[in-house]
Design goal:
Blueprint: H1 2-12, H2 21-35, E1 41-45, E2 53-57, E3 63-71, E4 85-87, E5 90-92, H3 96-113, E6 120-125, H4 133-141, E7 145-151, E8 160-165, E9 167-176, E10 180-181, H5 191-202, E11 222-229, E12 236-237, E13 240-249, H6 255-269, E14 272-278, E15 282-283, H7 289-302, E16 307-311, E17 325-328, E18 333-334, E19 342-344, H8 345-362
Parallel strand pairs: 3-6, 3-7, 7-17, 8-16
Antiparallel strand pairs: 1-2, 2-6, 4-5, 5-19, 8-15, 9-13, 9-14, 10-12, 11-13, 18-19
């Protein structure tokens, strides 16, 4: 297990920030050097407007009993965060928790499956922190199939199994008005006002929350205004205005219902909308036999009950939603994307044991 932690540290030292293709290529090269051995097959894809995708597998086919997914790109960080440190059983540094440590666990599990009667692969993307275009493009090809998926890019506690992830939708609002001198606003039509009115009307459907106002249950539909722009000078009534909205939807609101709301609001507020991005939520039934089996094994190894939770964010496993049984279970850690990001070393080792025990339990005799 010392080798597992050592490998994580070596990957963390590579500054594979999203968009830095030279460093991303360096991580992929390192992974191939350390994990490609007899019985491991490699496939690589490069799509337009996407960073590379790589697959390591114990079989030539891309139809898996279990496929693990992960990403090697990280968000920008201070220089010292690319020099990982271990303190009090915690591994500090950029990308340890999100998500080079859990990815290394999945790659270690790949080596464990060699020579065993199970089809296992690890699918690695390099633009998850920005667009997920690589995974999206790959799934459109239909090249990868999996009966089960390990999604380890989730949770804050190895004692937690995530059952649900929200459906992310990004929307652009646009309004056109009539410009005028700001000293004579009655001669113009302010496009900003139309956008503001639309946002206020949307807030009736999607209440706003601020620091200190967390709802009792976070499994609710939310909307955040993430950008607002009106390209004009200080003394002109703006003729154009744009806002970007990010929705995170539960299973209670599908894309058709959201579009119905947007159409109604935009009609009343004299603006228009455009869906920039929409993908699936992940809503797993924890009574599925595979998930029950995994949970039982995890509880035995951890020596405690596994809690069932949900998450507000999104995950690349949504690309497999409705097609595969997705087991969403990660390591313990905190402060992803922050200056104090860390991963609990014991949880890394526990996740490794759990994955291997689960693999053993489903191997075809």
């Amino acid at each position: 297990m010392e080798e597992l932690i050592s490998n994580i540290i070596k990957m963390m030292k590579i500054k594979s920030i999203s968009g830095n293709q030279a460093e991303i290529a360096k991580v992929f090269k390192w992974i191939k050097k350390h994990y490609v051995t007899d019985g491991v097959y490699v496939k690589e894809w490069i799509f337009d407007n996407a960073s590379p995708v790589m697959l390591l597998a114990n079989c030539k086919e891309c139809d898996f009993d279990v496929a693990a997914i992960g990403h090697i790109d990280v968000v920008p960080a201070k220089e010292n965060l690319f020099q990982p440190k271990i303190k009090d059983n915690r591994l500090y540094g950029r990308g340890g928790f999100d998500m080079k440590a859990p990815l290394a666990v999945c790659l270690d599990t790949l080596l464990y499956t060699l020579g065993k009667n199970i089809r296992y692969g690890v699918l690695i993307t390099s633009d998850e922190e920005t667009t997920s275009n690589g995974m999206r493009a790959l799934q459109k090809t239909g090249a990868i199939k999996a009966r089960m998926v390990f999604d380890t890019d989730i949770s804050n506690d190895v004692g937690e199994l995530v059952a649900k992830y929200k459906h992310p939708v990004s929307v652009e609002l646009n309004a056109k008005g009539k410009s005028a001198h700001s000293s004579r606003p009655w001669e113009g039509i302010n496009a900003v006002n139309a956008i503001v009115d639309a946002i206020k009307m949307l807030e009736k459907y999607f209440p706003q929350y601020q620091l200190g106002g967390e709802p009792k249950s976070t499994w609710i539909d939310t909307m955040s205004v993430t950008a607002f722009n009106s390209p004009t000078t200080y003394n002109v009534v703006p003729q154009n205005a744009t806002a970007h909205l990010n929705f995170r939807l539960t299973e209670k609101t599908d894309i058709k219902k959201l579009e119905s709301i947007l159409k109604d609001v935009c009609q009343k507020c004299s603006c228009s909308y455009k869906i920039l991005l929409s993908s699936s939520g992940v809503y797993m039934d924890t009574d599925k036999p595979e998930i029950r089996q995994y949970k039982k094994i995890a509880e035995k190894i951890l020596g405690r009950k596994i809690q069932i939770s949900h998450a507000c964010g999104a995950t690349d496993s949504r690309m497999f939603a409705g097609k595969s049984v997705i087991i969403m279970h990660g390591i313990s850690g905190a402060n992803a994307h922050g200056d104090k990001e860390y991963a609990e070393i014991n949880s890394i080792l526990m996740l490794s044991k759990i994955q291997k025990a689960f693999i053993d339990s489903i191997i075809k005799k």
